[in-house]
Amino acid sequence: MTKIKLCGLTEEKHIRWANEAGCDYIGFVFAPSRRRVSFEKEKELRKLLSPSILPVGVFVDAPIGEILSLCRADVISLVQLHGNEEEGYIQELRKQCQLPIIRAIDATDKEALRLGLDSSADFLLLDAKKGGSGVSFDWEITKTCTRPYFLAGGLHPDNLKEAVTKTRAYALDLSSGLEEAGEKTRSRMLEATRIAHAF
User: What's the burial of 47, exposed, middle or buried (CB within 10 Å: 0-12/13-18/19+)?
Assistant: First the structure.
């Protein structure tokens, strides 16, 4: 069964829909974005989340202390790095935080992919570019990835079956693909999770 992460959740109804869908991960964005949530809001939403779903904190070049404050508050279960964080940053974070780390990389950049394969992060997240692109890329590239990875970039319910069958992704990561007119929808969250879990 392919795992799935529903990212960019900001409202109570999103958490209810995620619980109903039975996804594996959800993402709370703490970086500048229209989907950004405050620490206070995230703590409120976290209380509503099913214990079977792991919350991921998404950060972009954040001070390590900022991430540690959430780790210590026990409101996130994984850390996702989406900026220019280098290996030294990851190792320093790991010294102080025991949570699994996801490192997002631009899969279309051969050098970035090479460095990603040597990263001490627990998982890679392959996207068309850093920061969440909403744009797909040639999935043939994923065949060179020898580590567990999340597949992102332009995924939506209509192409998830193809994504699962053409890649060896550990998990699928969707955000804009769960939206209609810029808003998350229950139907897309449920359908995306159903498709991912069918394979």
Answer: exposed
SS3 103: strand
Residue 112 pLDDT class (50, 70, 90 cuts): confident
Q: Are 98 and 78 in contact (CB under 8 A)?
A: no
**Which two structure tokens, joined as six digits, stand for 159?**
């192409």
Tell me the pTM. Answer: 0.95
Q: Could you read off the pLDDT of 130-161 as tens digits, one per residue? A: 555 577 899 999 998 999 999 999 999 999 99
- The sign of the torsion formed by the CA atoms of 26, 1, 81, 128 equals negative
Q: Which CATH class is domain 3-197?
A: alpha beta
Measured in degrees and rounded to the nearest 5, phi and psi for residue 109 equal: -100, 110
- Cα–Cα distance between 98 and 149 in angstroms, integer? 19
Cα–Cα distance between 195 and 199 in angstroms, integer?
7
Give pLDDT tens digits for 172-190. 999 999 999 999 999 999 9
